[in-house]
Amino acid sequence: QKKAIIIGSGIAGLAASIRLAHKGYQVEVFEANSYPGGKLSEISIKGYRFDCGPSLFTLPEEVDELFHLSDKTPEDYFRYQQLDVNCHYFWEDGTTVQAYADRNDFSQEVLEKLGEEPSHINAALDRSAFIYKHLAPLFMHRSLHKWSTWINKDAIKAYLKLGKLGLFHTMNQANKKQFSQDKLVQLFNRYATYNGSDPYQTPATLNIIPHLEFNRGAYFPSKGMHAITQSLYALATELGVNFSFGTPVEKIVVEKQHAKGVLAAGRFHASDLVVNNMDMVNAYKTILKDQAQPKKLLQQPKSSSALIFYWGIKKEFPELDLHNILFSENYKQEFDHIFNKQIICEDPTVYINITSVYKKDDAPDGCMNWFTMINVPNNQGQDWDLLKAKARISIINKINRTLKTDIEPLIEAEEILDPVSIETKTSSANGALYGNSSNNRYAAFLRHANYSSSIKGLYFCGGSVHPGGGIPLCLLSAKIMSNMIPKA
Ligand code: FAD
């Protein structure tokens, strides 16, 4: 039986292991951590459970597909429900908006709360669906590094629509054109953060993202986000995938431009092919350091990072939902701090994710588990101890002002994740959440391919390669990659 070695058990590494096992390979996964999942992990402190990284789940069918491939019923492993309210938005002046999943309800809410014409919402979401229809087949489901991608009917259709795909202006410019109310522009600009980009720089093509949330739906796994990792790990194990935890790969062994296996735990492990799920920038610095370096790709600007306070809060706030956003007063300034000044502003937008709203046992009775996050610059050697101490005060003040509360005395458990610890825990270069940022119109073309063009038998998947970061795209990277590999 042919053997495949996978380096890393992030969501893409797990998906790759399932796909290659399905293709008949004997699969071995080497994982540096003592647990699977990479960024998609969980922690528990003082009776509170938290999903560590991703909190928003879209395109669940990409997870289901892995079970269907293996003739399994997804529901036997993993259940999820669609949200009625995608997010609850708050501003300091007391305005609140519930982003209902139902388009009519959302339009009505936006008319009542913000005075925006419902027809503008309809047109914006139709435009988002249009971008998805024309770009998803090209950019999300195929390798951009094969000629066949560029000379098929989907590509030709997209060339004909180029002017309407938002390549030539920024997301903010497009949103100012489609909405009359500043608060709604801000709400839609926020979608740039879904892949760690800046709405004032990123092309309006990223207006593809609201389509996922509004037209396709946002979901919550009934056992929390970490259940995605657990269920895929369970499936992979059933399919015979072998996992070696606490075993960092030290080197990908290449002979005569063929990947021959890896060095790990002090010895050579032979294989017919090697799949790397480790962040590419750090991979080229370590396990591929003897190989030719794709300098231009590796130098691309990275996405933003995050500062998260996992807080056990000994009170319930009925006004808060699963996803809550407390918007900053000056959004432009906030992104200027993140991407240009590379520091944290005094009035950051605060995201509070509370899984105990849906999954009661994530917090003790009468309490809530607050995953309290702000977007921050990726790590460029800033004084994080100082920035964290200041940000904690700014976040608490922001919450107090917006929710008219005094939150500090209610915090009975605390853990912190910052850009440095994100890199330590998952090897992401600079602690970036999503690999490269998408702050220019060429970004999609400057991600690493899903295969090596110079080393045979070497493949790549995960948030730092095509098509990019975020759970759905990572799952698609594993699909694009495994579609290139013949059956064993
Ligand atoms: P990673 O999760 O990056 O894991 C890589 C794995 O490789 C790690 O387990 C690491 O230990 C292992 N590894 C590295 N080097 C080696 C080596 N030499 N040998 C062996 N193993 C190695 N996405 C969403 O879709 N929705 C969200 O709401 C969302 N929010 C996020 C919030 C935060 C705070 C973070 C951190 C991320 C968020 N993301 C979100 C992004 C999403 O988590 C990532 O894009 C995705 O999980 C990355 O998966 P990956 O397969 O690239 O691997």
TrEMBL record:
InterPro entries: Amino_oxidase, Carotenoid/retinoid_OxRdtase, FAD/NAD-bd_sf, hydcarot_desat_CrtD. Residues 11-479 form the Amine oxidase domain. Pfam families: Amino_oxidase. GO terms for biological process: carotenoid biosynthetic process. Keywords: Carotenoid biosynthesis, Oxidoreductase. The keyword Nucleotide-binding does not apply. One of its GO terms (molecular function) is oxidoreductase activity. The keyword NAD does not apply. Pathway: Carotenoid biosynthesis. PANTHER family: 4,4'-DIAPONEUROSPORENE OXYGENASE, PHYTOENE DESATURASE. NCBIfam families: crtI_fam, hydcarot_desat_CrtD. Belongs to the carotenoid/retinoid oxidoreductase family. This is Phytoene desaturase. It comes from Cyclobacterium lianum.
